[in-house]
Amino acid sequence: MGGLTVVRSLCSIQVPLDIIYVGDNANVPYGNRPLTEIVTLTERMLDVLDGRKVEAVAIACNTISATVDILEPRSKMPLVDIIRPAARAMARLDEPDVGLFATEFTVQSGLHAKLIHNANPAVTVHAVASARLAALIDSVPWNEAAIREEIASMIAKMRRDGPVRTVLLGCTHYPIVQNVFEELAPDMRFIDPAGLEAEEVLRTVGISTAPAKLSQPSSEKSTISLEVITSGDPAAYRRMFDKLGIPPAQRFTQL
Predict the structure, then answer these.
(1) Domain harbouring 243, CATH code
(2) pTM, whole model, 2 decimals?
(3) N- or C-end of the chain: fewer Cβ atoms within 10 A?
């Protein structure tokens, strides 16, 4: 479900796009899996998209994005990961300490920290991993109490680790419950990188738009055509479309 936050950002920009969204719900969360499994499962999804002759692939998942160096040589399509544009943005904040909330695999990969440090060696990245939060957000029905408990625990660990004011939500699931992060830590700023990736996607397919539009939801009718290919239950997507304000998908296909 997490990648739908990137779809939400694309839908907020009034440009014509045809999106084929592949969600491997039967095998989530990827963030608790070993590298070989993540790559194998992702290649299956890439094969599906290659068969549909898409112009570019937005990797709307930080865990998969952490394997982009392995995937790029194997893909016939341009891959746009969510980590690189986010790292560039965090490096430009001019803050000596920044935070990262992400899955265990993403944190262990160290890619955010490496890219941020390469762009700005003065920045220290304080990372806190969660093995539970993505799965809790994917669960139906939601366990609101468990979600709040896990987020509170993550924030407490971050406060113990360093003087962090800005935290990157380094899992695309986390912006779905960004309001809970903000409620539990009103003194912190939480960054959703979906808009940054959406901007990169548009550049990749040759569409230019004002960056300001990426964070401004539009009330106009969407020019997005959306198809969902999933190994899970389409009903779960319909519920999440409503929650995120995404136009309903025109078609559902089984992965």
Answers:
(1) 3.40.50.1860
(2) 0.91
(3) C
Looking at residue 13, what DSSP letter applies?
A: S
CA angle 230, 236, 241 (to 5 degrees): 95
Q: What is the DSSP letter of 213?
A: G
Query: Tens digits of per-residue pLDDT, 27-85?
Result: 988 998 999 999 999 999 999 999 999 999 999 999 999 999 999 999 999 999 999 99
Write out the DSSP string of 130-167. ESSHHHHHHSSS--HHHHHHHHHHHHHHHHHH---SEE
- Residues with Cβ within 8 Å of residue 186, at least 6 apart in sequence: none
Closest-CA residue to 148 (of 191, 190, 187, 177): 177
> In the numeric block, which tokens belong to residue 146?
């468990």
Are 99 and 158 within 8 A, CB to CB? yes
- How far apart CA 131 and CA 153 sit, in angstroms, is 12
Domain co-membership, 70 together with 91: no
Q: Diameter of the chain by CA atoms? A: 48
* Domain endpoint, select from 177, 192, 207: 192
